[in-house]
From TrEMBL:
One GO cellular component, as annotated: cytoplasm
GO molecular-function terms, A-Z: aldehyde-lyase activity; transferase activity
Name assigned to this protein: Fructose-6-phosphate aldolase
Subcellular location(s) per record: Cytoplasm
Species the sequence originates in: Candidatus Enterocloster faecavium
Amino acid sequence: MKLMIDEGQIQVIRRLYDVFPAEGVTTNPSILAKTGRPPYEVLKEIRAFIGKEAQLHVQVTGESREEMLEESRRIRRELGENTFIKVPVNREGMAAIRLMKQDKALVTGTAVYTRMQAYLAAQAGADYVAPYVNRIDNLGADGIQTVKDIHALFRNNGLSTQVLAASFKNSQQVQELCLCGIGAATVSADVMERLLKNDAVDMAVSVFRKDFEGLCGQGKTMKDCG
Ligand code: G3P
């Protein structure tokens, strides 16, 4: 499972890349709005930082298929041909996915709440589909189970489309989907930090250090002890 960062602030992305094995960045219009800056300025900064080959997912906002196609062309021109175009899986979005695939774009079907949306987007040629775990839960359905079903649905139908699970509220949800071997998960900075944060680990490390200093002296490590 690839781990991606669902974020638009470059300083946050830098901080997480420094520690976590992130393989890309995903954004959506709301994430870009939070930066308060011109979208292409923000996205070019992200692209320059993560590199030409890394995955960058950028969403279109137009209502018609023609608008979405034009947006996808501008996005690819500005940010590289390998930028994934996020397209909401609704009526116009479905038509747009087909047009974009004819245009040789990489496409992520997004705003996925149901298994059928995922199936249809995959049949239309989407490279990824992004089901929203937490938002599905908030509708009274089971987000994790929906993602598992979509993963199975793709395998059972010989579809090469990958799942890019999104909208997580905690690290347990990420872990559970990692166990299933889904294609990718994109997580917020907060959830990413929680994948590693563990007081028991901090305490164990602190005891090791204290014991060692008791043996060799304050501040001593394996580089400068006897
Ligand atoms: O990019 C879509 C998805 O990540 C939204 O997440 O946390 O706003 O539900 P969230």
